[in-house]
Design a protein that fits this description.
- The structure is a single chain.
- With about 675 residues, this protein is mainly β.
- Helices cover about 5% and strands about 35% of the residues.
């Protein structure tokens, strides 16, 4: 968790650093530091577009032992922190002794000879200072750079010397994470006092002097199972108005905030925010003090993701999961926007980018909620590192693989790629000793845009109340019809459309996603093909989730479906005779369907799932054909964890137009030829 929204803005530092290093070998004056935005490490205005490639850069140095726990970038310099002692440049025999800290050139991979602060213990976090010339260092040490300084220090990149003006006083326990937010240095860890002040687990200091600021004075108390009260990770929104905190605690300021808290940092003092959740009260394994491992806020600040440990805990708990929450959510028991399950393997690091949520640990699968230590229905193999869809948490196509070891302990997303810090030496099929950089230029992730009206609506197949007519390969009942539809008032008369050799009487649902027509057949298969309104491309099975263990539950849903549409990373569907609107996660780019069937809504005024015979969404309205072929509508309200119908119902085609269908779908008006 070292991406743009949560640490000092990388793009701004990169733009200034070349001139600063040449012109100002000494520390920058205080006024320069105060003028820089103290928010995150990279610039949200320069998001990492698309996925990174599955290839790693050549020339990165090899860390020869221990673990790399933190990676930071200052201009062209990469700084690593961890438990290591030896480093070797790629292709060269000389071994550098570097305990806990090492710096090297981001382009050439050459180790910075003058940077060797030599902390006496482990380094858990490295954070660039706003001057572009130094870094903050946190961990479990008693001395660094030849000075007696415990757990928290600031050293210069050029020569590793301490910044003398930064004197934080005594920190009584290890420092686990750091963040610069709105001109304050946030310090998280397992301490009870900072600079002589009683402040357990989370404190704020002056980033220039290191002295106590008192802005964060909320009391954290309690624990998950046992152990000391501590904060493991923190992450802030780009504007610094919210700070998300995870760790081994039960209450904040006397109110329940079990293992997770969102703090409001817009006022004169830090306050607890409105988000509470009981999701992380799952007990999980008795071997861990806390199940929390990492948190990261998205580049736009709209959501954050949390990774956990704890062993397999079933398909409804928080153990060994990655989950998304909306940052501005308010409530006493906020539920995650989505949850993905590894099946009992830990996630140590998460990194939210515009295209993906990168996750690393010793996980072997994702989309695996129903089995422990083995793949269950829908499980997708992603060994050690993966990219998840921000809309639903399902794995994207990116699959470089890495030796598992214990895990990935930090990511750093930059415009030049994705840095991965770990305890292993093989990644993407290459030898890279505990630090690697994935190159930019990977696959683009199609935007999940909602259908808008007016558009052409296609009516597939005939229907009767049994929803089980005999197959017909050539009769009129298998035709596909097209109707121009504005969404208000009667539609244009139906005209024949090419059926693509599909027997539309056997189709159970259809929708367009990522530019392709997806067809759910009576045989339980979901297929995709190009369709431009006049011609079809070849059909391919959407079966990524079936490769390890066949999804019998999903196949049964497809066979029994009476209507289906796609919206914001979810397939919504109704089943014959059921009073529910269901959904499953779906990522068209990777062809992964969610392993769990979830409920979006029961019957509401204007929408009766048991009477649906085809449905689609357009312009925030849910349209559905009933058992008599009448087209009805109700407002569609997108949201988290799912959308739902609600609002004033209406009959859309009052002229008596026939919408008798097996399936309804909207074809966007885009210039495409199959």
């Amino acid at each position: 968790m070292r991406s743009g929204a949560t640490h000092v803005r990388l793009a701004l530092v990169c733009a200034l650093i070349g001139a600063l290093v040449v012109a100002q070998p000494a520390a920058a004056p205080v006024r320069a530091e105060a003028s820089l935005p103290l928010v995150g490490r990279s610039d949200p205005a320069r998001p990492v577009a698309g996925l990174v490639s599955a290839s790693v850069a050549a020339g990165t140095p090899h860390v020869l032992d221990g673990r790399v726990l933190s990676v930071a970038q200052v201009g062209r310099t990469i700084v690593l922190g961890g438990t290591f002692t030896r480093v070797r440049e790629a292709g060269r025999p000389h071994t550098f002794v570097r305990r806990g800290l090492v710096a090297f050139d981001a382009v050439t991979g050459r180790v910075r000879r003058g940077f060797d602060p030599g902390p006496s213990g482990d380094v858990r976090v490295v954070l660039p200072a706003a001057d572009g010339l130094s870094v903050y260092v946190g961990g479990k040490f008693t001395s660094i750079a030849g000075t007696r300084q415990g757990h928290l220090a600031r050293v210069r990149i050029g020569d590793g010397s301490p910044v003398r003006s930064f004197r934080p006083g005594r920190v009584t326990g290890s420092v686990k994470d750091l963040a610069l937010v709105r001109g304050r240095l946030w310090v998280a860890g397992a301490f009870t006092h900072v600079d002589g002040h009683p402040q357990r687990a989370l404190a704020t200091l002056s980033p220039r002097t290191g002295r106590w600021s008192g802005y964060m004075s909320l009391a954290l108390r309690g624990h998950h199972r046992r152990g000391v009260t501590q904060v493991l990770k923190i992450s802030a929104t780009p504007g610094g108005g919210r700070v998300v905190v995870i760790g081994n605690f039960d209450t904040v300021a006397g109110t329940s905030r079990h293992q997770l808290a969102v703090l409001d940092t817009t006022g004169r003092r830090a306050r607890t925010g409105g988000l509470r959740t009981t999701f992380y009260t799952s007990r999980c394994s008795p071997r861990v003090d806390t199940t929390m491992r990492d948190v990261d806020v998205s580049p736009d600040g709209r959501y954050f993701v949390v990774g956990t440990t704890g062993g397999y805990g079933g398909h409804s708990g928080s153990c060994d999961t990655v989950a998304r929450f909306e940052t501005d959510a308010v409530g006493r028991d906020v539920v995650p926007s989505w949850v993905d399950y590894s099946g009992g393997d830990t996630t140590f690091s998460v990194e939210a980018t515009t295209a993906a949520v990168y996750v690393g640990g010793h996980q072997r699968w994702w989309n695996n909620p129903d089995r422990s230590g083995a793949p269950g229905e829908g499980a997708v193999a992603r060994r050690g590192v993966a990219a998840l869809d921000p809309l639903n948490g399902l794995p994207l196509t990116w699959n470089p693989g890495r030796d598992l070891g214990v895990g990935v302990f930090d990511f750093l997303a930059t415009p030049d790629g994705l840095w991965v810090a770990s305890d292993t030496t093989r990644i993407a099929g290459r030898t890279r000793g505990r630090i690697a950089r994935f190159l930019p230029g990977g696959a683009a992730v199609p935007a999940a845009s909602a259908a808008t009206l007016p558009a052409d609506v296609y009516v597939g197949g005939a229907v009767d109340d049994t929803l089980d007519p005999p197959p017909s390969a050539s009769g009129a009942r298998s035709t596909l019809r097209r109707r121009e539809f504005t969404g208000a008032g009667p539609a244009a008369p139906a005209t024949p459309a090419p059926d693509g050799d599909l027997d539309w009487t056997t189709v159970r649902g259809a929708f367009v996603a990522a530019g392709d027509l997806h067809v759910a057949g009576g045989d339980g298969r979901l297929t995709r093909r190009c369709f431009d309104g006049a011609s079809y491309g070849p059909a391919t099975d959407v079966s990524t989730s079936d490769r390890l263990v066949a999804m019998r539950g999903w196949a049964s849903d497809v066979r029994r479906a009476s209507g289906m549409f796609f919206d914001q990373g979810r397939i919504y569907f109704t089943l014959v005779g059921s009073p529910y609107l269901f959904y499953r996660y779906f990522t068209p780019a990777s062809g992964v369907v969610g392993a769990r069937r979830l409920v979006a809504s029961r019957s509401v005024p204007g929408f009766d799932p048991a009477r649906v015979r085809g449905m689609f969404v357009g312009s925030d309205t849910l349209f559905w054909s009933d058992t008599h072929g009448t087209l009805r509508s109700v407002a569609w309200r997108p949201g988290w964890p799912s959308g739902h119908p609600g609002g004033a119902p209406s009959v859309q085609d009052a002229t008596g137009g026939d919408w008798t269908a097996r399936s309804l779908f909207v074809l966007p008006r885009v210039d495409r030829t199959c």
